[in-house]
Write a structure and sequence with these properties.
Low-confidence stretches of chain A: 883-891
Structural class of chain B: alpha/beta
CATH superfamily of the largest domain in chain B: Metallo-dependent phosphatases
Helix content of chain A: 55-70%
Number of strands of chain A: 20
Helix content of chain B: 25-40%
Largest interface: A-B, 54 and 47 residues
CATH class of the largest domain in chain B: Alpha Beta
Largest sheet of chain B: 6 strands, mixed
Strand order of the largest sheet of chain B: 4-3-2-1-10-11
Strand order of the largest sheet of chain A: 2-1-4-5-6-7
Mean pLDDT of chain B: 91
CATH architecture of the largest domain in chain B: 4-Layer Sandwich
Strand content of chain B: 15-25%
Structural class of chain A: alpha+beta
Strand content of chain A: 5-15%
Largest sheet of chain A: 6 strands, antiparallel
Number of domains of chain B: 2
Oligomer: heterodimer
Number of strands of chain B: 15
CATH topology of the largest domain in chain B: Purple Acid Phosphatase, chain A, domain 2
Distance between the termini of chain A: 24 Å
Shape of chain A: flat
Mean pLDDT of chain A: 84
Radius of gyration of chain B: 27 Å
Low-confidence stretches of chain B: none
């Protein structure tokens, strides 16, 4: 696209401006600030893209400030085979008109004009993104250009790279592929959540299906168990029928065995009985013989016993006579002894009476001494009770009396002394007392407590005042005096003397008391007076009783000593009588032993005779009785008969045992027992089979079979459906991934290939400006400069100076415009740029711009005309601030 | 004397190629067919109906299936004799032993629980040979026939299982020995053997008295002439057998070799020509190579067909390769890297990279929707 003319009026602060532009080469539009340079560039973009009816703020802002005027823009454009003039009035009275000049004239107005213009631009491949990108404004737009969004550049790069250019459809495909990919995969390449959930659902369905399948399998197993049990039961019942036949046969054999066994048992019992009978008969025969022998032996023992009895009787008679004589002697000795003992007791009793009489006298003396001591004690107690003077009290009284006397002495010493020495007899009065003094007699008075009033005769009255210390002494004296009087009163004595006398009397009475008490204790000897009196009375009564009871014919002795002599004599007679008695007793004792021994022998002999007689009689009786029942001959015959019967029974037993042995009874029993056990075992097996079948049936019922098939089928169907869906999704996911990978790879490959021409274009221009070592690296995605090599160093875009960035940004735009030019291209508009370039760079940039003008329409807007003076071949247009169309001119 | 011979109802059957909705219709149709059998029985004045095994698909069906089936049977005004087969043997926990069956069993419905003869109508002795387990160890039919004595009137035996005649393993002891049965027929000890197990209607042997009735509704693609019942008339000259169709569903297969859009058109035409599509399952076998566009079109049409038919699927025998051709991308106006990527993918797809082929299809779809 080439812009041939731009005209504006009432555009912001610009009243009117218009420029004619060369279709190729560089047009430098000069003008001061506010002359409308930038407005022209902006108006070009506006009129080509914004409808005249737009009410947007950006369109409203085009109006001159404070004026409601139409803003007019008119451009003449050449693109492809088209050349047209598009004029639009914005804001007030919106209007649009399109006049197509070539290839065919046509005019449109209003919305149609806009639509047709857009159609022509689209038809001729005008890249609005590129047009926007190639509008370089100082500061604002001098940053990295956004070339990625420019389809024309993409196509140009595709062409330059030798590939078919990609269009919007490819981008749509790529976006669609990305969306498809995102349905199945995360950006990191992992499976998307939806897919994971699908997979989980399949697994869940698989588990459900497996559970249902296993449950049905279990059911089938239980049914099979039940069937097996049923079949086993039938087989067992058949077996048990067969076994029953064998068991019946064994039972029959067993019966025969039992019968023979019973017969044998009976035979054995008979044998036992016969044997017992033979034994009994033999025993009886032996017993008869033994009885005869016993009778003979008893007769022998009787004869011997009778001989022994006769011998004992011959020894016992003389010994019996001697013993009776000894008894007579003893009887006489005992009589003499008893008499002597009685005499001794009578005389001893007399002696005792006399002795008691003497004791009675002593008791009476002690009672008299007691009475005397009691009287003396009472007298002493009376004295002691009459006086209250004790040793302690007396001692206290003595002490108080001593202190009183000392106090009196001190009082006397403290008081005034008045000494009257009578030169003649005189009566001295002191108070009521009259004291007569003879001549030469002196009398001293002590005035201790108060004024002493003396009268000496009737002539003189003397008042004597006691000394000052006397008062306290007197007071003390009186206190002590009172204390002593209290003691005297307590002791109930008049004074110390009386107290001393009473104390002497008390001490005497105390001694008498002690003596009386000693006499009393000696007389009583531990007894009380009453006891003593009772003792005396008892003793006296005893004496009287003995006197009354005495029956002894001999006269009682008079004295105690006489009584004692008689006693001694009786004791001697008693001793002699005892000796005689002892000797008689000794003789009797000596005879008693032999006599008793012979009497025992005699008794033993009599017992033996009696026993032998009894035994002999018993044997004889038994023998007689046995013989009466069965004679000795009959007894012998029966014993022989029993022995023969025993032998016959034994033979019968042997026969039966042989018969039984032939039947093999143990084998028969074992077989029968085995059959029974086998039957029992089979019956147990049957019970087990029945139980197992019932359990299996119960298990079958417990598994709730109804519906299991449908559950399994439904779950299998669900699993199949989900698995199929997942497989389908997996396939789609693989397809989406494969497609996106392919697209991305192809795109990267294409990007790398078409980056090369852009980089070449940039580097070829950059080497002019920055030197021959200049190289550049472009970002594949954004097509922006990533870094460049300047003066041997690679620097990132951000590390470049502002001036370099600006120059490089223009070079990139020039390169892009150059590449896009064959497809129609768009103008490169440089608005007040290169303000940071030094002279050298500026010159080189001007040269680059000049060269670019050969291929691209370059429009330079500047308020600094000198900055672009070095652009070779440039056409200069000057705009005056607020004036009409600029005059055309060029250099 | 006329009776109805049917078998292999397999009520409650699931087909994996059916959607949930179609499955429900399919299951319902098998029950509905019972009512049609009842109507035919009434029409031909049949004395009874025998179902020779596999009445139910499984012994562990949902309660609703059992209830609805019994309800449909109860509506028939004719005695129905059910024989437990290998799908529903008389086992603990099985359908016929369930309280649900006992409680809901209509008066006109009877189950052969042993080989004891029954007399549904005067002059006819009916002997069922029920399956007591899923794997019988011997041929109970042969055993039975060997022990049958001549009978006054007609004797019909109802059994289930494969026969040894034409079997690849004729010595299999589980197989029904046709020779013994025919011997009994010849000797007048047996007049008709109503068999179940094969889902296709078929006469067995040469006696004309041994028949598989086939399933009353088709169940799989491999069946030959399913969906029939047999109207059996017992007369002096032996049994006379006629088929009556009661099935409403169809399982259809077709094979196509496709190498271009014209071939695909034939496929689409075939699909369009099918009657009663909602009750038809289709299995297509497609062999050949088609372009991406053609594949996309095929997929779209199959998707439409799936919405229309009872079920549509490509068989495992299908071998349909996708090979992009120039026409796939000529109208897409791809350029630049997208064109490069397309070319790369195409090359990989031609080398057999299925992911690349799928990626191409996706690219095709995205490019078509691009401005």
């Amino acid at each position: 696209m080439r812009v041939l003319r731009i005209a504006i009026s009432s555009y912001r602060g610009v009243l009117r401006a218009a420029v004619d532009l060369a279709p190729m080469g560089v047009t430098v539009i000069e003008g001061p600030n506010g002359s409308g340079k930038s407005s022209l560039a902006e108006a070009l973009a506006t009129v080509l893209t914004v409808q005249e009816t737009s009410k947007s703020q950006s369109i409203k802002a085009l109006q001159p400030v404070g004026k409601d005027q139409a803003t007019d823009i008119e451009v003449e454009v050449e693109t492809g085979e088209y050349r047209f003039i598009l004029a639009k009035s914005y804001n007030r009275h919106p209007a649009a008109r399109l006049d197509v000049i070539t290839p065919h004239r046509e005019s449109r107005s209003g919305g149609e004009a806009h639509d047709r213009a857009v159609e022509i631009l689209d038809q001729t491949g005008v890249d609005r993104h590129l047009m926007r990108a190639l509008w370089a404004r100082q500061g604002v737009e001098m940053a990295q250009v956004q070339l990625r969004e420019c389809p024309s550049l993409g196509r140009a790069l595709d062409v330059a790279a030798g590939s078919v250019p990609a269009g919007e459809a490819e981008q749509t495909v790529l976006d669609g592929a990305r969306q498809e990919y995102a349905r199945y995969w995360t950006p990191g390449g992992a499976e998307a959540k939806r897919m994971a959930e699908l997979r989980k659902a399949v697994e869940s369905a698989r588990v459900d299906a497996e559970v249902a399948r296993l449950k049905e399998l279990e059911l089938e197993e239980q049914v099979s168990r039940s069937e097996r049990s049923f079949r086993a039961l039938i087989a067992l019942r058949e077996q048990i029928q067969e076994l029953q036949l064998a068991a019946d046969s064994h039972a029959q054999s067993l019966k025969e065995v039992d019968r023979l066994t019973a017969d044998l048992e009976l035979s054995r019992q008979r044998l036992v009985a016969a044997t017992a009978g033979a034994t009994l008969a033999q025993d009886r025969h032996h017993a008869r013989a033994a009885l005869v022998a016993a009778l003979e032996e008893a007769s022998g023992r009787l004869h011997s016993s009778l001989d022994a009895l006769e011998r004992a009787q011959a020894q016992e008679h003389p010994l019996q006579q001697r013993y009776q004589q000894a008894e007579d002697m003893l009887r006489v000795a005992v009589g003499g002894s008893d008499e002597a003992a009685a005499r001794l007791r009578a005389r001893a009793a007399d002696e005792a009476v006399l002795h008691q009489q003497r004791e009675l006298v002593e008791l009476r003396q002690r009672l008299q001494a007691v009475s005397s001591a009691v009287e003396r004690r009472a007298a002493a107690q009376a004295v002691l009770g009459a006086s209250k003077v004790s040793e302690v009290g007396l001692e206290a009284l003595r002490e108080q009396d001593s202190r009183v006397r000392e106090a009196a002495a001190r009082l006397a010493a403290a008081g005034a002394k008045v000494r009257f020495t009578a030169t003649q007899a005189v009566v001295i009065g002191q108070g009521e007392e009259l004291i007569e003094l003879s001549s030469g007699e002196a009398r001293t008075f002590t005035i201790a407590d108060s004024i002493g009033h003396f009268r000496v005769g009737d002539l003189v009255q003397v008042e004597v005042e006691p000394g000052s210390g006397a008062a306290s002494e007197r007071e003390r004296y009186e206190i002590l005096l009172v204390e002593r009087d209290q003691t005297l009163h307590a002791l109930e004595v008049a004074g110390l003397r009386e107290a001393v006398l009473q104390m002497g009397e008390r001490q005497q009475a105390q001694r008498e008391m002690e003596e009386a008490l000693a006499a009393l204790d000696a007389s009583l000897a531990g007894l009380s007076t009453d006891e003593l009196q009772e003792l005396a009375a008892t003793k006296e009564a005893g004496i009287r009783q003995q006197a009354l009871s005495r029956s002894w014919g001999e006269a009682a002795p008079e004295t105690l000593e006489g009584a004692r002599e008689l006693v001694l004599k009786a004791e001697m007679e008693d001793e002699r009588a005892r000796e005689l008695r002892a000797r008689a007793q000794q003789l009797l004792d000596a005879l008693r032993g032999p006599l008793q021994q012979i009497q025992v022998s005699l008794q033993a002999a009599r017992t033996a005779v009696e026993h032998s007689q009894n035994e002999s009689e018993r044997c004889q009786l038994a023998l007689d009785q046995a013989r009466m029942l069965e004679s000795d001959n009959v007894l012998a015959a029966r014993a022989e008969q029993c022995r023969e019967a025993s032998i016959a029974a034994e033979n019968e037993c042997s026969h039966l045992a042989g018969e039984l042995e032939k039947l093999q009874p143990q084998l028969v029993r074992d077989l029968a027992e085995n059959s029974t056990q086998a039957m029992r075992r089979l019956q147990e097996d049957i019970r087990q089979s029945e139980g197992e079948g019932m359990r299996a049936d119960a298990q079958v019922e417990a598994l709730a079979p109804i519906g299991l098939f449908d559950q399994r089928e439904a779950r299998a169907s669900e699993l199949q459906r989900r698995a199929a869906a997942l497989a389908h999704e997996d396939r789609l996911a693989a397809a989406a991934r494969t497609l996106l990978q392919s697209l991305e790879e192809a795109r990267l490959e294409a990007q790398l290939s078409y980056l090369a021409p852009l980089r070449h274009q940039i580097e070829s221009r950059g080497k002019v400006v920055f030197g021959p070592e200049f190289q550049v690296e472009l970002d594949v995605e954004s097509l922006q400069v990533a870094s460049c090599q300047l003066d041997g160093s690679w620097l990132g875009w951000d590390k470049l100076s502002t001036g370099t960035q600006e120059q490089l940004a223009i070079i990139v735009r020039l390169s892009a415009a150059f590449l896009a030019a064959p497809g129609g291209g768009v103008p490169l508009i440089i608005d007040d740029a290169l303000g940071y370039a030094d002279e050298e760079r500026l010159e080189r940039m001007c040269m680059v711009l000049g060269r670019a003008g050969n291929d691209v329409q370059v429009i330079v807007l500047t308020c600094m005309p000198r900055r672009y003076q070095q652009v070779g071949g440039a056409r200069t247009v000057r705009l005056e601030k607020g004036v009409a169309d600029a005059p055309e001119g060029s250099r | 004397m006329t009776f109805i011979h049917s078998a292999d109802w397999q009520l409650g059957m699931w087909r994996e190629q059916l959607s949930d909705e179609a499955q429900a219709r399919f299951a319902s149709a098998r029950i509905e067919a019972i009512r049609r059998i009842g109507a035919v029985a009434l029409e031909v004045e049949a004395g009874f109906v025998v179902v020779a095994g596999d009445v139910f698909e499984s012994n562990h069906l949902d309660r609703s299936v059992i209830r609805r089936s019994l309800d449909a049977m109860g509506e028939a005004r004719v005695p129905i004799y059910l024989l437990p087969g290998n799908h529903d043997p008389l086992q603990p926990g099985g359908v016929f032993n369930s309280n649900l069956f006992h409680e809901g069993c209509p008066d006109n419905v009877h189950v052969f629980r042993d080989t004891a003869p029954v007399h549904p109508v005067p002059g006819v002795e009916l002997v069922g040979v029920p399956w007591l387990s899923k794997r019988p160890a011997h041929d109970p039919v042969g055993d039975l026939c060997g022990s049958l004595q001549p009978v006054q009137g007609w004797r019909v035996v109802v059994a289930h299982g494969a026969v040894d005649l034409g079997s690849p393993d004729p010595d299999n002891p589980e197989l029904i020995r046709v020779g013994i049965v025919e011997q009994a027929i010849r000797e007048g000890r047996l007049h008709y053997l109503a068999l179940g197990d094969r889902h296709s209607t078929k006469a067995v042997g040469t006696s004309g008295a041994i028949w598989y009735s086939g399933a009353h509704e088709p169940t799989r693609f491999s069946e030959i002439d399913p969906g029939n019942i047999l109207v059996v008339e017992l007369g002096e000259g032996g049994p006379s057998v006629r088929t009556r169709r009661v099935g409403s569903w169809s399982f259809r297969t077709a094979e196509f070799t496709v190498s271009g859009r014209e071939d695909l058109s034939a496929v689409f035409s075939w699909l369009d020509s099918q009657p009663a599509k909602e009750r038809t399952l289709v299995r297509l076998t497609l062999v050949g190579t088609i372009s991406i566009q053609a594949r996309a079109e095929l997929d779209a049409r199959l998707e439409e067909a799936r919405e229309l038919f009872g079920g549509v699927r490509l068989s495992s025998d299908s071998d349909l390769a996708v090979a992009p051709d120039d026409s796939d991308f000529s109208g897409l106006e791809l350029s630049g890297f997208a064109s490069t990527a397309a070319n790369n993918l195409r090359r990989r797809a031609e080398e057999g990279d299925s992911a690349a082929a799928d990626a191409l299809s996706l690219l095709f779809r995205l490019a078509r929707s691009a401005p």
